[in-house]
Write a structure and sequence with these properties.
single chain, alpha/beta, seven-stranded mixed β-sheet, two-stranded antiparallel sheet, 5 helices
Length: 196
């Protein structure tokens, strides 16, 4: 996920799959917190039965840690959406460095992307800046959007003290975890069965 620009660079490690232990650089911006290794390990253990061949969207890509991890673990294709120019440039550099043709990097706002409904995804990662209402807004749009395929899943990450829309009647929580002050969960639209 990403936030307002500040100077500096960071490094995050891919923790599993084809590119295990490879390090990717990212633009350190205010509000950007790459999902920690331990949380990513838990998330991708949850996704292990469905990640192979999945179509994934990392909507607030930031460092790209979730999207690149998904590609490393066998996702068929991954779309990274990032509005910040410098963060976008790092995502493109990392995509080229890893020679990942199945990863597409787009420089645009999450809202522009959501409203033009490009493609159908099995897994959508939502890890926006903690401050603000981006998570609730995105979940509200995805309740009825054709972007999330039938039986698709949404991963959300937020401050543990904050309640978000995935606890509404529109979403069913499949798995949930907490690490420090961060809560994360995997959810599915209410009434939908498992992904095909």
């Amino acid at each position: 996920m990403s936030g307002a620009p500040r100077t500096g660079h960071g490094v995050v490690r891919i923790i599993g799959g084809e590119f295990r232990s490879r390090r990717i650089r990212f633009e350190a911006t205010d509000g950007l917190r790459p999902t920690p290794d331990r949380v990513r390990e838990t998330l991708f253990n949850w996704l292990a039965p469905v990640i192979q061949g999945a179509r994934c969207l990392d909507l607030f890509a930031g460092s790209g840690a979730l999207g690149f991890e998904a590609a490393s673990r066998g996702a068929a294709n991954v779309t990274l959406v990032e509005h910040n120019r410098r963060a976008f440039r790092h995502l493109e550099d990392n995509r080229r460095l890893l020679d990942l043709e199945r990863v597409r990097v787009l420089r645009e706002s999450a809202w522009s992307f959501l409203h033009r409904a490009d493609g159908v995804y099995d897994i959508i990662f939502l890890d926006p800046p903690f401050d603000g209402d981006a998570l609730d807004r995105a979940l509200g749009i995805l309740e009825t959007s054709t972007l999330l395929g039938a039986g698709g899943m949404v991963y959300v990450e937020h401050r543990a003290a904050r309640r978000v829309g995935d606890e509404s009647a529109a979403w069913t929580t499949l798995k949930r975890g907490r690490s420090g002050d961060v809560e994360y969960r995997l959810a599915q639209r209410a009434g939908e069965g498992p992904a095909p």
